[in-house]
Design goal:
seven-stranded antiparallel β-sheet, five-stranded mixed β-sheet, alanine-tRNA ligase activity, about 25% helix, globular, alpha+beta, fatty acid metabolism, about 575 residues, 8 helices, single chain
């Protein structure tokens, strides 16, 4: 039987504690260089890791986007950074960047998570903006600006930025009078019970793949296996990446691509960033569920912790805006009240079990029942990971409601750090619309209405982000703009890229029109694309022919108007 560390407070982190985060990657000593880096001479034969970057007054931030990386090496020198690793498929990745300006390598850091490796590089000259990351004015195809985190901080926008960052700091401090659970004690030693060959099906940019590896069973574990609506943890065993954790009866299977000897002592660490995010969302769900039931007798039938947002399915065909607002106000009041969250185990025949909320136990459940309680609010059967006090949630934002299955309603929400990230993305979109529409945020809606009333076609274009036009970030940016402007009655033609070279395009509008025009637009731009539900997007090789696309769209509108 295995046990998993799921809930704790700073007072619980002592001695044999199994709570915290993996240690930050150590920055290589300056004497370590490309000549002694394993395989550096073969760098040209390797693939590059997709890299995002953004600029701040004191630091430059880089994110090497590699999920479940292994064999990670990071070298930061005063004029360059060298990065290498292997991805989940075992492919070697290598990036070497000569910096735009000198940095302080001794005051720079890097941190690894299951999703990426982030580097914080300190500038020698603070408050001097970097127009690009690279020394030479080049645009590698694997490098692009992180639009979600990019913020202008010079000139007239400095005051605005200060206000945004001040608000972000306020959110971070909401009801938090103590530090979050300690992150440096997540070293847990245990024993390998068994190790057997296994396979893991993964899905990436190149489609589905089957990885060969091993299922490792430990005497105890602090890595949570998927269950109860919550995804599994990620982490390492003796610095070997754990790519999946699943429950098999009373055991947890840890999938690795390296075998471990049964009977050997091993050190287990968890990806704290992923764990704490899941804790915030899961405890947030318990709180929302309890409040919705208490205020309006709305029962939760299921929930899903998504990568970017979470959804609670409520047993009601609809909800009013007033109900949503009341639930959001109540849950945030309870966060400010700093209510404790406790975990206890009860036997099946304990009378208290009858008072506990739950939707039943798995058929293969064995042992005591685990109960998670929010003081004075809720008690619920749950196997998941949770915060030890509601103040650790920081804040909850209910984004919207959506129609669910079988006369049910999905309540979409964010908790904790996800609210901060959502705010930054929203602010970035607001700034982009302000630049495009030439008006303040308070006038965006009116400006878009005027555009829709005055024209049936709206064309917008941007130069390529650093790293070229073919970027996932640029595609996402165009879709965000399309969502904000709306395209129910207007044909919206958006492009990102070199005016005379390659780029990306998006055609949005009435589904029937987009279905007809999308392939023709791709043909004119000598590109390829695909679409559905009123959106057609793709890659173009001849962005210089955008005017021909505009003429094509105008002819179509004229023909349709004549028919009407």
């Amino acid at each position: 039987m295995f046990s998993v560390a799921l809930n704790c407070s700073p007072d619980h982190i002592r001695g044999g504690s199994c709570w915290g985060r993996p240690q930050d990657l150590k920055i290589a000593a300056p004497a370590w260089n490309s000549k002694c880096h394993p395989g550096a001479g073969a760098a040209m034969a390797r693939q590059h890791a997709r890299t995002l970057w953004y600029d701040r007054p004191k630091y430059v931030f880089m994110e090497f986007c590699v999920e479940d990386s292994t064999d990670v090496h990071v070298l930061i020198e005063d004029h360059r950074i060298v990065f290498s690793c292997k991805n989940v498929d075992g492919v070697e990745l290598y990036n070497e960047i000569e910096f735009y300006a000198e940095v302080n390598s001794t005051d720079s850091q890097d941190k690894r998570s299951s999703r990426s490796i982030t580097c914080f590089v300190r500038k020698w000259k603070e408050k001097v903006a970097w127009p690009r990351l690279t020394k030479e004015d080049i645009k590698p195809v694997w490098l692009s600006v992180d639009f979600d985190n990019w913020r202008d901080w010079e000139g007239d926008e400095e005051v605005e930025l200060a206000q945004v960052e001040h608000y972000a700091e306020l959110l971070k401090k909401v009801s938090t009078k103590r530090p979050p659970p300690a992150m440096d004690d997540l070293d847990f030693t245990t024993t390998v019970v068994s190790c057997r060959p296994a396979e893991l099906q993964t899905e990436g940019s190149n489609g589905k793949k089957v990885l060969s590896g091993f299922h490792v069973v430990l005497e105890d574990t602090l890595l949570f296996p998927e269950g109860g609506g919550q995804p599994d943890d990620r982490g390492t065993i003796n610095d070997i990446s754990v790519l999946r954790v699943t429950r098999r009866g009373e055991q947890a299977d840890h999938f690795t691509q390296t075998p471990l000897d049964p009977g050997s002592q091993v050190l287990v660490r968890v990806d704290w960033e992923r764990r704490f995010d899941h804790m915030q969302q899961h405890s947030g769900q318990h709180l929302i569920t309890a409040v919705a039931d208490h205020l309006f007798k709305l029962k939760t039938t299921s929930w899903e912790l998504g990568r970017f947002r979470s959804a609670i399915e409520l047993d009601t065909p609809s909800m009013t805006a007033e109900q949503v607002a009341a639930i959001e106000q109540s849950v945030n009041e309870k966060i400010r009240d700093r209510l404790p969250v406790n975990v206890q185990e009860l036997s099946l025949d304990d009378p208290e079990v009858e008072q506990v909320r739950g939707r039943g136990l798995p058929d293969d459940h064995a042992g005591p029942i685990r109960v998670v309680s929010i003081k004075g609010v809720d008690s619920n059967m749950c196997c998941g990971t949770h915060v030890s006090n509601l103040s650790d949630l920081q804040v909850i934002k209910i984004l919207c409601t959506e129609k669910g299955k079988k006369n049910k309603t999905n309540l979409i929400f964010l908790a904790g750090n996800r609210v901060l990230k959502w705010m930054e993305r929203s602010h970035g979109t607001e700034k982009a619309l302000t630049a495009l529409l030439k008006c303040g945020a308070e006038d965006h809606v009116e400006a878009v209405k005027k555009l829709q009333n005055s024209t049936k076609i709206l064309t917008l274009s941007w130069p390529a982000s650093e790293g070229g036009a073919r970027k996932e970030g640029d595609s996402e940016f165009m879709n965000i703009i399309a969502n904000e402007i709306g395209s129910e009655e207007t044909l919206l033609f958006l492009t990102v890229g070199d005016e005379k070279g390659a780029g990306l395009f998006l055609l949005a509008g009435p589904p029937a029109s987009v279905e007809t025009l999308g392939p023709r637009v791709a043909e004119v731009l000598e590109g390829k694309g695909a679409g559905k539900k009123g959106r057609f997007q793709g890659k173009a090789t001849k962005m210089s022919r955008r005017t021909e696309v505009q003429a094509l769209l105008q002819d179509y509108i004229s023909t349709q108007s004549a028919k009407e």
